[in-house]
Amino acid sequence: MPLGRKKGKALCMLMMINILICVLVGVSWKLGHKGDPKGIRIPSKRFWGRMLMSKSFWNKEQQRLDVINNPLINSELFGGSFIALPDWLNDTGPLDPCEADYRVARQVLDYNILPKRFQDFLLHMRCRMYPMLINQPHVCDEKPFLLLVVKSLMPHFDRRQAIRQTWGHAGFLANRSVVTVFLLGRTSSVDNFPDLQEMLNHEAKLHKDLLQWDYRDTFFNLTLKEVLFLEWFSTHCPHAQYILKGDDDVFVNTLQIIDFLGGLSEGKGKDLFIGDVIKNAGPHRNRKLKYFIPESVFVGQYPPYAGGGGYLLSGDLAIRLSNISQEVVLYPIDDVYTGMCLEKLGLVPKKHPGFRTFDIEEKYRDNPCIYRSLMLVHSRTPQEMLEIWPWVTHPELSCQ
């Protein structure tokens, strides 16, 4: 190429670069001028601001977990300079997370006047490891299409039996494999329960569908039941395609659920999480309510979450929830906690009209055809389950 042409090409390139710089400067000036009449604003502080400790115990614990799991901070290098972490992050509590964490009595201002169930939860909030008393390690060997997971209590023998005889019957339904497991902790004399362990052991040998861990089975420990199940699922049942999770007092139209799942594409099924979704909710501050949460423990809004009575999700998502749950501090309300884990994954549960965790209108409760179109209704007694199940399975019932 002649020398003149080379010089001409280089000159054109230089002019284009200059034009680009002028355009960028002009845009920056306009943006700066819009926000500040004096022109472009230059930040006077570092991008990485100072971390302020929350006054609420759960929020502070979550801040600490966020820092531990932040790859930028863990690399100890950001923008070419080391980050000085605040001293309060080193207040880690006992080395063994399953030891009682008595520092909470100092850090939760109204600890001494909180209900006993709250004090117990806070003392053991970091413990996630409890031995298994009853396991069914081979229950998913056949890689079920649908795993029915039922939260139950030791004394609820009648509820479990009614579920086995109706919507939780294991085997093949509508040409799909279905497996049922019941989740239990331990009840004790402290909670005014008799010793039922031998009866439960017999039930487990007879039906081979019970999973039990050695922890106190209380309302605030339902979150613990959730994370222990997710861990079990990741180890013993990771190939189950879908999971229906519910309480032992819900009625489930298993046929309707299988029909719904059969119509899903692979892409839609991967992130599936549907139920009776609650949005724009926050903690209750009334001490008389079951869901009371004091400001000393938590402040903020709840993410969207599905009512814990029952919801449907994919097995793939359950494994991701198990992993991300390690980055979310245990919260005393299990369905809210699951919503927090979904939020960490960048997902939002979807509301489905077939889930009625707050029941249906009373005038429709004895209408057999209503249950044909629903997926889950809360709550029903064992006797009602036995009555309703034939309504959704008998082909002779005509619903127009």
Automatic annotation (TrEMBL):
GO terms for molecular function: N-acetyllactosaminide beta-1,3-N-acetylglucosaminyltransferase activity. Pfam families: Galactosyl_T. This is Hexosyltransferase. InterPro entries: Glyco_trans_31. Its main location: Golgi. The chain crosses the membrane at residues 12-31. GO terms for biological process: poly-N-acetyllactosamine biosynthetic process; protein O-linked glycosylation. One of its GO terms (cellular component) is Golgi membrane. Pathway: Protein modification; protein glycosylation.
